[in-house]
Amino acid sequence: MSIEISKTHALLAKAMDYRAERQDMIASNIANADTPFYKPRDISFEDALVAKKNELYAQDQQKLQMARTDPKDITPKQESNSYKPTLYFRDGHMARNDGNSVDIDVETTEMSKNSIMFNALVMANKKDMAIFNSVIDASAKIN
């Protein structure tokens, strides 16, 4: 049995995973800047993160369960716990003569924004952990 620190901690960990995947994708775009006919890819993980948040903060008591009156009834669809970010091709940039549409300025800007968001998530995670550490320290002083 594992101890769940907080629901926020699990959500922050998943968000950091998604940001790390996006950083790898942007680095791949930069690495393929000279590959003919390469289209830059990106990851949209906002929908997956919202689904994860809804799963973590869902109120099970408020969900209406489907009644099965006969064993032959169709079983309800189980919700998937494997949320995947959406991969898409970034359009809107002019392709060069070789068909490659990677814009280094756009990629480095996106990488910087993603890095700032990742660092903000790390700091939020540290703050979340500091709250629990202070509670543990305070409880140790009581004895």
List the helices and strands and how they pair.
Layout: H1 7-31, E1 41-44, H2 46-56, E2 86-89, H3 104-142
Antiparallel strand pairs: 1-2
Helix pairs in contact: 1-2, 1-3
Describe the structure.
The chain is mainly alpha-helical and 143 residues long. It has one domain. The chain has three helices and two strands, in the order αβαβα. It has a two-stranded antiparallel ribbon. The chain is flat and about 70 Å long. It starts with 6 loop residues before the first helix and ends with a helix.
Terminal-residue CA separation: 27 Å
Structural class: mainly alpha
SSE order, as H and E? HEHEH
The share of residues in extended strands comes to 5-15%
Give the number of DSSP strands: 2
Poorly predicted spans: none
Strand order of the largest sheet: 1-2
Cα gyration radius (Å): 22 Å
The coarse silhouette is: flat
Helix content: 40-55%
Number of helical segments with 4 or more residues: 3
Rounded average pLDDT: 81
- Total number of domains: 1
Largest sheet: 2 strands, antiparallel
